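REVIEWER CHECKLIST
Item 1: Sequence provided? yes
Item 2: Single chain? yes
Item 3: Sequence as submitted:
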Amino acid sequence: MADSDIPGLIAEMGKRARAAAVQLAGMTSDAKRGALLSAAAAIRADSESIVAANARDMASAQASGLSGALLDRLRLDAARVESTAAGVEAVAGLDDPVGRTIDRVERPNGLVLSRIRIPIGVIGIIYESRPNVTADAGALAAMSGNAAILRGGSEAIHSNRAIHAALARGLAAGGMPPAAVQLVPVTDRAAVGAMLTAEGLIDMVVPRGGKSLVARVQAEARVPVLAHLDGLCHTYIDRAANPAMAQSLALNAKMRRTGICGATETLLIDRAFADPTPVLAALADAGCELRGDGEVRAIEPRTCPAACEDWDTEYLDSILSVKLVDGADAAIAHIAAHGSHHTDAIVTEDAATAERFLAQVDSAIVMWNASTQFADGGEFGLGAEIGISTGRLHARGPVALEGLTTYKWVVRGTGQARP
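Item 4: Structure as written out by the authors:
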């Protein structure tokens, strides 16, 4: 397809999505749940073909030199396809926010005012690498009464098409309009630009990817953006941390899965902490490349010298920057200067210090004595997530069903005229 045809393609998809959104907004919760369960069954039925399609993407990605962490994001096997189908079922089991009364008040003149949750309308989701997002985003949009236009990354094109085919077939069999969840059929980057300028057709865009994608979306968008920025997450080990817990959490927060946005990228350690040697040794023994200054290298000789940019880098790999700081206030200041407002954690047995950290660190998710790898909608009981919003407006943290709704005022009167 020529570049000149792509705006027309997106416009046509937007029109179909708008018509589908009207129908979705009128569906009952039970009807939406039934359609999602049908979609989950269709994904399971197509497991072999989805894995085969993913093998084509994996071969291309390996040939192009994609990093190990990004290959892990891309890879699908039977277990991950089952997890994807289970994620769709989990969304079906969530409480439907649409139609929920947020609050209600009766005015002195007798007017009854209510705020009611409603779908946003048509949501464009632009994402990279992870093919499971095709199902997660589609399921969340459909359950919250929104039509979705999905634009996945070129590296996962065959996987995305296979998952979308199963998802769409199942949703339609369950009674949803065929255009409820559409996948942009081209990989041309012009499709992203067309989505970002589709005013009146797309109500909100959700970018889910690296810095370059999010920067482009924020620079070019003419429709509202719910930004999922990079996960430059920190774990701070306080002087009052339990040493065994500190070692366990630091290792898990970095090495459980290095390619997810909740992976810790910088480890801050209080200079007054009892002994950082076992913590750093455990990380190095696990294959993590440590980067720090001379002070850190004196503790763990396998540490590489850190550059200024290390404190501002989301590695998404087995690399961790390490810095010693003078207490919680210094850790909070470092996070304010270098963090991405995603997820930051403190390890300490001092409740007062923990509460100060939780109050003063300005991130969407702050944690006490827990691994940053818990920064996930499923772990929060929200089912799948469409992303983790690091902004301040509308939704913050894991964005699931409620984050994909807005509200309207409903006013009921008995003939009141304003004097």
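Item 5: Key structural point noted by reviewer: The radius of gyration is 23 Å.
Item 6: Recommendation: ____
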